[in-house]
Write a structure and sequence with these properties.
By secondary structure, this protein is of the alpha+beta class. The chain is built from six helices and 13 strands. Helix 1 runs antiparallel to helix 6.
């Protein structure tokens, strides 16, 4: 049976109902959410969309054993990394909405944080081959060493989720998507039994929804599915999940 847009909306509304009905510990001091970025690598080369997920180590205190997308907080060096191309203007515009002290540089840093975190957690360098004028120290120096420049024009901004106030950890997470063809180089041995991610799996998008994943991951898989059905364009609206007077709501940027 062919899925309709109303089917997807119904599932998203069901996610919201379950999120708001869940018994969560919201007793902690309210802290400002940290800017964070997550990258969903998607492979559509054989007609069946697949996404890359990593399984977190069971020793982690935060989401042990869960399948997640690579991602993490923004680092100061992310603002200084040269790029092969800029963000699509429509993606940049939506990244700067409802963003304190928004600027194109900070929007770019969010996308670059997703690229950097993906390398740190998976060993995949995303971008195009090219000499960087100068790369920041640390992780970004590996991009310079392997002559890979991040290429932002093909990175799609697909979602945003802000952790409710009162949680022990809070993130203002932006979710990005890029095609697997953006993989320019691979370093082996980054995942394994002693790493943050113990394994990586390419999973059909439809099957990924049935994995043991955090709720926000389930939501973004659903959002990505709808985005593909709607043409996977930069000008599509971007969902924002945030808490308003104690209730998680879905809004569009």
């Amino acid at each position: 049976m062919t899925e309709t847009a109303s089917d997807r909306v119904a599932r998203l509304n069901d996610f919201l109902r379950r999120m708001n009905a869940a018994d969560r510990d919201l007793s902690h001091q309210v802290i400002r959410p940290r800017d964070a970025a997550t990258l969903i690598l998607i492979d559509r080369s054989d007609g069946v969309p697949k996404v890359l997920l990593g399984k977190r180590h069971m020793r982690h205190k935060f989401m042990p054993g869960k399948f997640v997308f690579p991602g993490g907080g923004v680092d100061p060096a992310d603002k200084a990394m040269p790029v092969a191309s800029a963000l699509d203007p429509k993606a940049e515009m939506r990244l700067m909405q409802r963003f304190h002290k928004a600027s194109p540089l900070r929007a770019r840093a969010l996308a670059l944080a997703a690229v950097r975190e993906t390398f740190e957690e998976t060993g995949l360098l995303l971008g195009t081959r090219g000499e960087a004028p100068k790369t920041p120290a640390g992780t970004w120096s590996e991009f310079g060493r392997h002559k890979v420049l991040p290429d932002l024009r093909n990175i799609h901004f697909v979602g945003r989720a802000i952790t409710p106030p009162g949680r022990i950890r809070r993130f203002d997470a932006r979710f990005f998507t890029v095609e697997a063809s953006a993989i320019a180089h691979r370093i082996d041995g980054v995942t394994g039994p002693d790493s943050e991610l113990v394994e990586l799996v390419w999973m059909p998008l439809a099957d990924a929804k049935r994995l043991d994943v955090p709720t926000v991951t389930s939501i973004m898989l659903e959002e990505l599915d709808g985005r593909i059905a709607d043409g996977f364009r930069h000008d599509l609206p971007v969902p924002l999940y945030r808490t308003v007077r104690g209730t998680v709501v879905r809004e569009l940027l």
